[in-house]
Specification:
This protein is an alpha/beta fold. It is built from 17 helices and 14 strands. The chain has three domains: about 200 residues, NAD(P)-binding Rossmann-like Domain (Rossmann fold, 3-Layer(aba) Sandwich); about 90 residues, N-(1-d-carboxylethyl)-l-norvaline Dehydrogenase, domain 2; about 140 residues, NAD(P)-binding Rossmann-like Domain (Rossmann fold). About 45% of the residues lie in helices and about 15% in strands. A six-stranded parallel sheet has the order 3-2-1-4-5-6, with helices on both faces. α5 packs parallel to α6. The radius of gyration is 24 Å and the shape is elongated. The protein binds uridine-5'-diphosphate-xylopyranose. The site of uridine-5'-diphosphate-xylopyranose (UDX) has 19 residues, from α9. Uridine-5'-diphosphate-xylopyranose binds next to α9. It comes from Cellulophaga lytica (strain ATCC 23178 / DSM 7489 / JCM 8516 / NBRC 14961 / NCIMB 1423 / VKM B-1433 / Cy l20). It catalyses: UDP-alpha-D-glucose + 2 NAD(+) + H2O = UDP-alpha-D-glucuronate + 2 NADH + 3 H(+).
Length: about 450
């Protein structure tokens, strides 16, 4: 099939590349001509494992093209995917200006019947707005072309996006047209074995809602567990044991119940807020979802509060070695990362930061922490330790899982670790001579 993917951000680029890998003829469109020029030469603007090689391979195979010319691409197009950003507006709702601008252009340029797919995460009711916007342009042109608007939300995890796309748990297709559903099923067929077709077809609004509910449910699990961790700590229980105790119940399961410094990233914070706004706009006050966000905001600072409890509020003369800046391992993404909040709080109190992250240091330097003065970046985790009073672990990168603890003891001024991701066993740490602080269990 001939596909146009509009928006070469994270979702658009991964989706376009994976569709090309399945033999479709894909053109990825973006208004950023510099980005498009780079992509034509295989320069990938984001870090995502495995993406670069498939992009290059498909450029070579002539299945993947990059362009700024939407009009030209729509001349030969069966399905157009809208994959532009939906940033959070000031009131917490998703801002649809880019999505609707693209819809307008589709209406201006389309020359034959078309399926238009909302791939961006958009509030319930957006497909109707996209439809109305396209129809208005067609009316202005005085032309009668048939089109359907389909909701096909993405469920990609950063760091695993390629495998999530190539081997999906499910593909949700929301459409009020049988014909469009049939074509979308065909498009996704190669991603499944005959016996395991995991396409779930439903109406448009339910599909739009499914995306928000999946993310809000996962965020709820995390905030629930973080709240339990805080209670465990006060009453003298160990959340790590409680986690295993409850996870063994197959109805609960082990995933997404790891306590930590709170969830971050581009999806959970934005989607939880947007779902709240949607409910409120319809006169419903979603208590639980509001609490999920409130608990998470507080959780981001639990580790900073432990530090304050130990050293007091004046941190002048103290230096902390931070291991991990990205919101989770496997990505350079720092959007809503706990590290931003913790580092800002500690430096405001006078502390100096030595930071290391395997991938996110450029993001930190040039964007998320560019205003922070008292921070120095190092090219290895051990280099951060010299002259530091304690190590603070904020992202569970694999290379932090079993470090050389003797080296830590040798380099740190005192053997103290604040662990925002519960990576080590506290009894072992005590045996090794560390003062070890974690989430959800009192220091022994
Ligand atoms: C998420 C969804 O998983 C994905 O389906 C959706 O399309 C986009 O949002 P992503 O943002 O890449 O993907 O991150 P994910 O791996 O889901 O983790 C989100 C956050 O939750 C991270 O900050 C992570 O550290 C945190 N988390 C996760 C926990 O604190 N505890 C857990 O048990 C699991």
């Amino acid at each position: 099939m001939n596909l146009t993917i509009i928006g070469t951000g994270y979702v658009g680029l991964v989706s376009g590349t994976c569709f090309a890998e399945m033999g479709n003829n894909v053109t990825c469109i973006d208004i950023d001509s510099k980005k498009i020029e780079g992509l034509k030469n295989g320069i990938i603007p984001i870090y995502e494992p495995g993406l670069e090689s498939i992009v290059k391979q498909n450029i070579k195979n002539k299945t993947l093209h990059f362009s700024t010319d939407l009009k030209d691409s729509l001349k030969k197009c069966d399905i157009a995917f809208i994959a532009v950003g939906t940033p959070m507006g000031q009131d917490g709702s998703a801002d649809l200006k880019y999505v609707l601008q693209v819809a307008k252009e589709i209406g201006e340029y389309m020359t034959s019947s078309l399926i238009v797919v909302d791939k961006s995460t958009v509030p319930v009711g957006t497909a109707d707005k996209v439809k109305a916007t396209i129809q208005k342009e067609l009316d202005n042109r005085n032309i009668d072309l048939s089109f359907d608007v389909v909701s096909n939300p993405e469920f990609l995890k950063e760091g695993d996006a390629i495998s999530d796309f190539m081997k999906p748990d499910r593909v949700v297709i929301g459409s009020n047209s049988e014909e469009a559903t049939k074509i979308m099923r065909q498009l996704y067929k190669p991603f499944f074995r005959v016996t395991t077709d995991r396409v779930i077809a439903m109406d448009v609004r339910s599909a739009e809602m499914t995306k928000y509910v999946a993310n809000a449910m996962l965020a709820t699990k995390i905030s629930f567990m973080n709240e339990i961790a805080n209670i465990c700590e006060i009453i003298g229980a160990d959340v790590n044991k409680v986690r295993i105790g409850i996870g063994s119940d197959s109805r609960i399961g082990y995933s997404f119940i790891y306590p930590g410094s709170g969830y971050g990233g581009s999806c959970f914070p934005k989607d939880v807020k947007a779902l709240q706004r949607t409910a409120q706009e319809h006169g419903y006050s979603p208590k639980l979802i509001e609490a999920v966000e409130e608990v998470n905001d507080k959780q981001k600072l639990v580790i900073a509060n432990k530090i304050i409890e130990k050293y007091g509020t004046d941190l002048k003369g103290k230096t902390f070695a931070i291991w991990g800046l990205s919101f989770k391992p496997g990505t350079d993404d720092m959007r809503e990362a706990p590290a931003i909040y913790i580092i800002k709080k500690l430096t405001e109190m006078g502390a100096k930061i030595h930071a290391y992250d395997p991938k996110a240091m450029d993001e930190a330097k040039h964007f998320y922490l560019k205003d922070v003065k008292n921070i120095e970046y190092f090219s290895s985790k051990y280099e951060t330790l010299k002259n530091s009073d304690a190590m603070i672990l904020l992202t569970e990168w694999k290379e932090f899982r079993s470090p050389d603890f003797e080296e830590l003891k040798l380099q740190l001024k005192e053997p103290i670790i604040f662990d925002g991701r519960n990576q080590y066993n506290d009894e072992l740490m005590k045996g090794r001579g560390f003062e070890y602080y974690q989430i959800g269990k009192k220091t022994i």
